[in-house]
Task: inverse folding
């Protein structure tokens, strides 16, 4: 027998790490048999709908629920007054602040939750919310974060007046939330003072919303007989929700079951705990029947989880060759009315301190102030890991500005400043230890693929003809996989993640994880990890997540943490099983463990052909013939606390052509090279990258949440809020290099967010580049046709 | 509000429902008939996740009153696969990785089902325009375009 061919055949049949296995989850979705929260129906279930504030800042004078309650089919109308006796009218946020569940005396943003109506069906509930009479007294509104800490600013959070010790720092003003700094201020300032060249660029990373196609919602069901509360909920972090619900309700965690069923996209929108969830839970407890609450699209965009709203200044000090000597970043962060970010507790500005990027920067200082305004709360990570998008934007933009000032090509200035391959692991001056990287190779591969020099020549010709062509380039480094529990926790729970694997007697596998898929394909990829580790075909490996009654505790899926943390737990749990399997194999083959070697799916006695036991043989034996003193069974649990983050990176290039008369931009080409370490399923990786690039395109080119001076949100339907369609979405070209993470059990780094993080500054870089010969150094997003046209007009480029 | 009796055909079977005149078809399908394949993403005709096929046209079922469908032939994603197996378009979506979270998928499939009858041999540009009433937040569309192209090829060979 040709053993090499045989081995290869067995290897291939595993459908393990590295193959583009078709997705296990597809069968139900393509047949309309997904099970999303709004698909759940329970006997006696009622529908809830929210009465919301039309004003951004107002005192509530009175709420009259009589007419609504008189409408046939209405079962209850809850207000803050009803929640107060239960002490549930406010709830803690994940950021150390509190948020009103139902407005208590005051509303702080337009569309804030004021009352919950519960009725027989959604039509009656919608009728009833119109019948709830709320009398308001309008108050002065604060919209501009730059005015938040002025003497004239209206004070928003009366509940915090005089409490100057905030969750993260002393507060300087009643509208101040925190100040957070990283790096060395004085040393950085000294370098700037003495530098040959300095640049400074202000930029607004505008407010956007993740806007998954499925909105947020829940079905809360209190079983009064058994004392058990079950909540089906669109959550990216069901175990954390269970802990919070238990703390809020006083029910033991064992009496609370949170189930995240199928989720129609998350992108950070579904990490937080929202007033609608809490109010629905209370309604179910009060009424004793299941209560469903599902946002409509306007509620989704207006209230649950905006992202960004970072007003930044990036500054670089360098020598005349463009070698960077220092970085200074200042941020004013608009958090809206309540600080409900979902960052690890110790990091109120997330991982903004990854803002040194891919570059060898000797010294840096980062200063972030968070403020309250009369806007919706949030500040979530929209397809990124805790403010990494903002960090990458500020460094990549400022790099371009420096290149422009010095007349150095933007590829060349990056080459000169990259952390070199041999410097890894590299500790940045702001404290991250970059695990691995090869930035030069990635950049050169992209430049070759697109014929960068040719593009520059073409651009020169176009410029001579008065045409606008831009080339954007970004070389980003991300930090994902939060994270080591010594530095990362949410509400005091360390940010480990978990896997529990059981091998059945016949050798099939059931595995459960603490994470939860929202389209990433966990049922497919976790099985591939186990298949490669244990030599069992992935088709016989079932993956379950999302039910807190059955899966081990985990912190959930966001910040690209599933593969770096959950995937690591899976590999380690599988290795625990393999270690036991080896003992059983030695027992069965009557040799010592040292005489055994592993090959694909079996242990073999070294040098004795034919003496071997497959994992299937071993699984069977685990239930009837184990060595003396060993307990039967074949299963393992691992709670993986990562030793470090992982640092995926990439090089992206974009070519745009701008119509001078209309400002309409054509994305001619977008080339994305990603390095996410070991690649588990290339098909899924490509899909994740396409999706992330498209979301990046949306943010850079069109999404925005504009507020007028009264705090009215101008654009909370899909008519106004830009979700790219088939037509405008560019065609993406993807590429990769592989630089495994040295500390991850299988070397994987996580990928889903890189394309979002990396593409946004690439678009801006390309747009600005189209005008760079006219001394434009920066243009704020979104780069929609109107704004671009205004830029063209301001430069006097219009023909008439 | 007085309810009205409405009959229509759903995936080849006659259904009789009693609905308020204001009830939207998407709610009748999902709440009344337990066909939860079509989803709700906006209720304003923008996203297309509620797309079904009515009398030979793609229709966003969040924008149609159930009473308007009286006597119509309605097809939804639940009716695509037959005893012989998956529809060619469904298989193409799996093969080309044309879905991630799956929320848009039933609407995409129903639109592709009609689009490929309107244009059995589309190029990529025609696919983009023909499918543009359906949004997806996960895939960036590229693999959906591949899936529709593959489905077109396989349908012609079938
Ligand atoms: S729900 Fe019908 S188009 Fe969005
Ligand atoms: S697959 Fe998630 S919206 Fe299309």
Result:
């Amino acid at each position: 027998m040709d053993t090499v061919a045989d081995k290869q055949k067995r290897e291939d049949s595993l459908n393990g790490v590295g193959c583009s296995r078709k997705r296990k989850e597809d069968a139900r979705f393509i047949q309309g048999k997904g099970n999303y929260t709004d698909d759940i129906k329970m006997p006696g279930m009622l529908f809830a709908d929210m009465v919301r504030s039309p004003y951004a800042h107002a005192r509530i004078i009175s709420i009259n629920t009589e007419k609504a309650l008189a409408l046939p089919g209405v079962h209850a109308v809850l207000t803050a007054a009803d929640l107060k006796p239960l002490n549930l009218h406010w709830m803690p946020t994940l950021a150390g602040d509190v948020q009103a569940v139902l407005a208590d005396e005051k509303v702080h943003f337009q569309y804030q939750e004021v009352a919950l109506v519960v009725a027989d069906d959604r039509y009656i509930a919608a009728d009833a919310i119109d019948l709830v009479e709320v009398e308001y007294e309008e108050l002065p509104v604060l919209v501009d974060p730059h005015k938040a800490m002025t003497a004239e600013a209206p004070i928003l959070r009366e509940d915090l007046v005089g409490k100057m010790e905030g969750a993260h720092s002393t507060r300087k003003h009643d509208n101040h939330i925190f100040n957070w700094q990283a790096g060395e201020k004085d040393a950085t300032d000294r370098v700037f003072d003495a530098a040959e060249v300095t640049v400074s660029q202000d930029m607004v990373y505008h407010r956007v919303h993740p806007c998954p196609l499925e909105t947020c919602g829940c079905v809360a069901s209190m079983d009064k007989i058994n004392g058990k509360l079950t909540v089906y909920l669109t959550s990216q972090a069901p175990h954390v929700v269970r802990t919070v619900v238990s703390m809020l309700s006083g029910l033991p965690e064992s009496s609370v079951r949170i189930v995240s069923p199928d989720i129609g996209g998350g992108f950070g929108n579904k990490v937080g705990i929202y007033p609608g969830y809490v109010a629905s839970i209370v309604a179910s407890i009060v009424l004793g029947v299941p209560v469903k609450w599902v946002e409509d699209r306007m509620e989704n965009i207006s209230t649950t989880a905006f992202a960004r709203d970072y007003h930044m200044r990036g500054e670089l000090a360098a020598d005349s060759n463009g070698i960077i000597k220092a970085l200074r970043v200042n941020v004013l962060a608009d958090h809206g009315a309540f600080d409900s970010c979902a960052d690890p507790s110790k990091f109120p500005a997330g991982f903004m301190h990854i803002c040194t990027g891919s570059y060898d920067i000797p010294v840096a200082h980062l200063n972030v102030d968070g403020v309250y305004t009369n806007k919706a709360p949030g500040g979530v990570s929209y397809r990124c890991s805790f403010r990494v998008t903002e960090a990458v934007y500020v460094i990549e933009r400022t790099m371009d500005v420096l290149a422009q000032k010095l007349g150095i090509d933007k590829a060349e200035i990056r080459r000169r400043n990259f952390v070199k391959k041999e410097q890894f692991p590299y500790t940045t001056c702001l404290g991250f230890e970059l695990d691995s990287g090869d930035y030069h190779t990635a950049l050169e591969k992209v430049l070759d693929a697109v014929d960068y020099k040719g593009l520059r020549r073409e651009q020169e010709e176009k410029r001579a003809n008065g045409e606008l062509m831009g080339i954007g380039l970004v070389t980003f480094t991300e930090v994902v996989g939060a994270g080591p529990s010594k530095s990362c926790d949410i509400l005091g729970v360390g940010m480990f993640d978990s896997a529990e694997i059981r091998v059945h007697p016949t050798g099939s596998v059931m595995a459960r994880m603490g994470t939860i898929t929202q389209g990433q394909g966990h049922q497919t990829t976790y099985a591939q990890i186990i298949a490669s580790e244990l030599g069992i075909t992935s088709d016989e490996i079932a993956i379950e997540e999302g039910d807190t009654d059955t899966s081990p505790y985990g912190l959930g899926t966001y910040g690209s943490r599933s593969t770096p943390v959950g995937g690591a737990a899976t590999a380690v749990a599988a290795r625990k099983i393999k270690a036991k399997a080896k003992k059983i194999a030695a027992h069965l083959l009557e040799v010592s463990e040292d005489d055994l070697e592993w090959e694909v799916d079996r242990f073999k006695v070294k040098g004795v052909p034919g003496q071997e036991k497959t994992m299937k043989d071993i699984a069977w034996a685990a239930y009837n013939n184990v060595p003396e003193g060993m307990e039967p069974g074949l299963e393992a649990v691992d709670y993986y606390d990562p030793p470090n983050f992982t640092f995926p990176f990439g090089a992206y290039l974009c070519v745009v052509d701008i119509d001078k008369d209309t400002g309409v931009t054509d994305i001619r080409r977008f080339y994305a090279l990603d390095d996410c370490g070991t690649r588990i399923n290339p098909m899924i990786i490509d899909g994740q990258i396409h999706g992330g690039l498209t979301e990046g395109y949306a943010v850079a080119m069109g999404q925005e949440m504009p507020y007028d001076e009264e705090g009215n949100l101008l654009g909370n339907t899909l008519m106004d809020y830009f979700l790219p369609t088939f037509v405008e979405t560019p065609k993406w070209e993807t590429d990769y290099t592989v630089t495994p993470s040295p500390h991850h059990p299988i070397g994987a780094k996580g990928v889903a967010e890189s394309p979002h993080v990396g593409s946004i500054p690439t678009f801006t870089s390309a747009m600005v580049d189209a005008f760079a010969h006219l001394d434009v150094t920066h243009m704020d997003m979104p780069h929609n046709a109107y704004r671009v046209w205004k830029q063209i007009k301001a430069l006097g480029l219009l023909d008439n | 509000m007085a309810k009205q009796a409405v009959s229509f055909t759903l995936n080849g079977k006659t259904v009789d429902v009693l609905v308020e005149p204001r009830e939207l078809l998407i709610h009748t399908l999902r709440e009344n008939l337990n066909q939860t394949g079509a989803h709700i993403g906006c209720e304003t005709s923008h996203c297309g996740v509620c797309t079904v096929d009515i009398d030979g046209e793609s229709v966003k079922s969040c924008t149609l009153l159930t009473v308007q469908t009286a006597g119509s032939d309605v097809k939804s994603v639940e009716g695509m696969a037959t005893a012989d197996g998956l529809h060619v378009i469904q298989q193409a979506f799996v093969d080309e990785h044309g879905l991630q979270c799956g929320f848009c998928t039933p609407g995409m499939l129903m639109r592709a089902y009609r689009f490929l009858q309107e244009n059995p041999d589309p190029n990529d540009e025609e696919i983009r325009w023909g499918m543009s009433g359906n949004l997806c937040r996960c895939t960036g569309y590229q693999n959906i375009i591949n899936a529709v192209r593959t489905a077109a090829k396989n349908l012609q060979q079938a």
